[in-house]
Structure formats: C-alpha cells, structure tokens
Amino acid sequence: MSIGDLPAVNAALNGMATLFLAAGYVFIRCKRVNAHRVCMVAAFMVSAAFLSCYLVYHFNHPTTRFTTPGWPKALYLIILFTHIPLAVVNLPMILATLWYAWRGKFEIHRRWARWTWPLWMYVSVTGVLVYFMLYQIWPSAELLSR
Known about the structure:
About 80% of the residues lie in helices and about 5% in strands. The protein is mainly α.
C-alpha cells in the first residue's frame, strides 16, 4: 500500500464509521445498551484511524484540486466547506460525549449525544461523498506540488 491509496482507505473508514453510528443509534433506541456501546466505541476507533490516515496523507501528499467546472464544483465546495468546520467542531464534542458515558454520567452524555451524533453522522457521510466526487464521479482532480 502507498500514500496514494489512503484516500480510498479514508473513505472506507468513514463509511464504516457511518455504519457503526447508524447501528449504535438503532441499538440505543431498542435499549440494547451493550450493543450501542460496542458500536460507538467501534465508530470512534475507525474515526481515529481515519484521522491518522488523513493526517499522514496530507503531510506527505501534494494538494488536490477539484477541477470539474460548473455545478459539480459548486456542489463539491458546498459539501467540503460544511464538512471541514463541522469535523473540527465535532472532534471535541465526540470526546466529551464519550467521556460522559465512560464516567457513567448518562444524563449529560445523552444531552451531548443529541448534538454530537447528527454532526458525526454528517461528517462521516460527507467524507465519503467528498472522496467519490473527487476521485470517482468526477476524477479530474489535479494533484499539485506544494
């Protein structure tokens, strides 16, 4: 595997996080607390692996520019420019939400999770969309040297 393979790995990790988040939501709604816990820890682990791979990729790889003009570029930029700040904001929210669960402060955990879960889901889904738009649907992305 090379650095160039990491965008696909990142998309797969985001996709897995999405599945774990969805399953965790269903499990907690069904009051299956242990299954919920397993899914949410798994979502955190694959998201942490994603963040590691993302940082490795962007420290070692040239910048990528979306070059398809018109509405595809507008759509891509809208998704990207919502995805990035929400990902940054969501990280401390995820950590706080998990911390409250870990400490057994479930009422506070639930209050945080009402905001954290939808943001985390959005960031995971849009991460996959960004990958497909950049490398699969409109693969005219240009690699630029730094």
